[in-house]
Amino acid sequence: MLKQMGRTSQTVLIILYVLITVKAFEMEVIPAVRVVARIGETLILTCNTTGCALPNFSWRTQMDYPLGGKVYNNKTYSTLTMSPVSAENYNDYLCTVICDKEKKEKSVKVELYSFPSDPVIETTASLVVGETATVICKVHAVIFEVHDVFPADHLELLLKKEEHILHSKTFEGDISTKTETKTVAYSFNLATEDNGKEITCVARLQIAGMDFEPKERSTSLKLNANFGPQNTFINASPGNLSMEGHSLKLTCVTESNPPAQVFWRKHLAKETIQHFVENNVLSIPHAHFTDSGQYICEVINPVTNKTEKASVNIVIQAPPKNTTLTVFPSSSVKEGESVIISCTATGVPTVQIILEKKIGDVITTLKTEDGKYTIDKAQLKDAGKYECTFTNKFGNHSLDVELDVKVPPQNITVLVYPSENVKEGENITIVCSTYSNPPSQMILKKVNQEREIILPVVNGTFTLYNVTKNDTGRYLLDVFNEVGNNIKVIEIAVVGKLEKPDQILPLIIAFSCVTAVAIPVVAILIYVSRKAKINGSYSLVKALRLKV
């Protein structure tokens, strides 16, 4: 009996344990109480149960409006899907669940808002630095009759530049049933630093106590501010000084939006630059000395119509160039004329000029002024070779010229052999010497002749053969060259005749006899004289006696 009572107690306890552990029938709606849905999207309401094996679900709206969605029932839950959400879905939705004659209900309020698109940003047609720029933000919104759906006073529009708020506006008390465009605009003076900065338009829905996404939409654009050109300069690579034959690049750097058009030219150059130009770079593959000069780049902004220029002086280093050696008025001048010898050259570094006069092995360095040497009155001694040497650290070069100083006949000497007075039959030789450049020519002619007789000259020598009395008279010796002339007068007198050879012979014989006698006598006298000197005295008588 006691055992039976114990078994009964255990059964009761087990039944009680099972009753206690079995869950009670419960239900919930997800989302609970309130949900905010955006028109055009999908919304799913879920009704869940626990503690019921075979629940029976049903959905309805307040005042039995159409559901505006599709119901799907599963074993323990049911869903109501609204896709897309429309204005008719603004309502209270009630989920009813019956489990073993037990009935439970819960509702959720569906509220709507409209945020159909991102804001739109507009700007003035052309944004130019220094001018007033206007930025407009527009947003399209659907406002409904039911104030709670989308209270207009909860729409806020913001205009921002980077993180700085330019302008904001809240729309209040605006209730309608149509799609409207809300707009805010802001004007400001555009600066260069505004280029590339981001302008953002933000539209916010700030409805208290409602959790939904998105709560805001935004649109951004970067300002394209037209400006310049400005801060223009030329960058020379490898530098302003370049060696002849090396490459050179000139880059025109400027700040401009849109990019400026670049035009190159060379100062005072008549012809167009022939070097390779690409965009803003001027390239000289093999620089020449003549490429030295001032280069100018002119930049033009096609939108702002503004122009700016920059320049750079380029110097191409090279050995002496364009060397010249000139003589003014000529390398051949007359004695007494002024002469200027000029040496010129170009080159970088600066060319040193040395002028020297060379006569044989004698070299004289002349002092010049700016490469010029002046001879006030040229003399024959100034004639000779003049050499200019041009030097810098990259090389040297020399030029020379021969200066010829022309001198008229000077220091004329005339000799007449045997004399200006001769006898008939003799020959007369007239020798003339002079100092001149170029060498002189000579003409000898007799004055007062019925016809002019010009005697021939050989190396400055004239010869009159077998003269007669007719050769007596005045002769003119004209010594001349291209520079000038000089005239000498010679008087020739011819008298008598020479003796015949048969009359002269006796005289020659007599002279020979006398000479034959005289020579021994003179020898004796010399001997006696020396003896006398040895004795310390001289006596012709004693000397003769000693001889005897």
TrEMBL record:
<dbReference type="InterPro" id="IPR013783">
    <property type="entry name" value="Ig-like_fold"/>
</dbReference>
<dbReference type="Pfam" id="PF07679">
    <property type="entry name" value="I-set"/>
</dbReference>
<dbReference type="Pfam" id="PF13927">
    <property type="entry name" value="Ig_3"/>
</dbReference>
<keyword id="KW-0325">Glycoprotein</keyword>
<dbReference type="InterPro" id="IPR003599">
    <property type="entry name" value="Ig_sub"/>
</dbReference>
<dbReference type="InterPro" id="IPR003598">
    <property type="entry name" value="Ig_sub2"/>
</dbReference>
<keyword id="KW-0677">Repeat</keyword>
<dbReference type="GO" id="GO:0005886">
    <property type="term" value="C:plasma membrane"/>
</dbReference>
<feature type="domain" description="Ig-like">
    <location>
        <begin position="320"/>
        <end position="406"/>
    </location>
</feature>
<feature type="transmembrane region" description="Helical">
    <location>
        <begin position="504"/>
        <end position="528"/>
    </location>
</feature>
<feature type="signal peptide">
    <location>
        <begin position="1"/>
        <end position="24"/>
    </location>
</feature>
<dbReference type="InterPro" id="IPR003987">
    <property type="entry name" value="ICAM_VCAM_N"/>
</dbReference>
<dbReference type="GO" id="GO:0098609">
    <property type="term" value="P:cell-cell adhesion"/>
</dbReference>
<keyword id="KW-0732">Signal</keyword>
<dbReference type="Pfam" id="PF05790">
    <property type="entry name" value="C2-set"/>
</dbReference>
<protein>
    <recommendedName>
        <fullName>Ig-like domain-containing protein</fullName>
    </recommendedName>
</protein>
<feature type="domain" description="Ig-like">
    <location>
        <begin position="409"/>
        <end position="493"/>
    </location>
</feature>
<feature type="domain" description="Ig-like">
    <location>
        <begin position="40"/>
        <end position="111"/>
    </location>
</feature>
<dbReference type="InterPro" id="IPR008424">
    <property type="entry name" value="Ig_C2-set"/>
</dbReference>
<dbReference type="InterPro" id="IPR047012">
    <property type="entry name" value="ICAM_VCAM"/>
</dbReference>
<feature type="domain" description="Ig-like">
    <location>
        <begin position="229"/>
        <end position="313"/>
    </location>
</feature>
<keyword id="KW-0472">Membrane</keyword>
<dbReference type="InterPro" id="IPR007110">
    <property type="entry name" value="Ig-like_dom"/>
</dbReference>
<keyword id="KW-1133">Transmembrane helix</keyword>
<dbReference type="InterPro" id="IPR013098">
    <property type="entry name" value="Ig_I-set"/>
</dbReference>
<keyword id="KW-1015">Disulfide bond</keyword>
<dbReference type="InterPro" id="IPR003989">
    <property type="entry name" value="VCAM-1"/>
</dbReference>
<dbReference type="InterPro" id="IPR036179">
    <property type="entry name" value="Ig-like_dom_sf"/>
</dbReference>
<dbReference type="GO" id="GO:0005178">
    <property type="term" value="F:integrin binding"/>
</dbReference>
<keyword id="KW-0812">Transmembrane</keyword>
<keyword id="KW-1003">Cell membrane</keyword>
<keyword id="KW-0393">Immunoglobulin domain</keyword>
<keyword id="KW-0130">Cell adhesion</keyword>
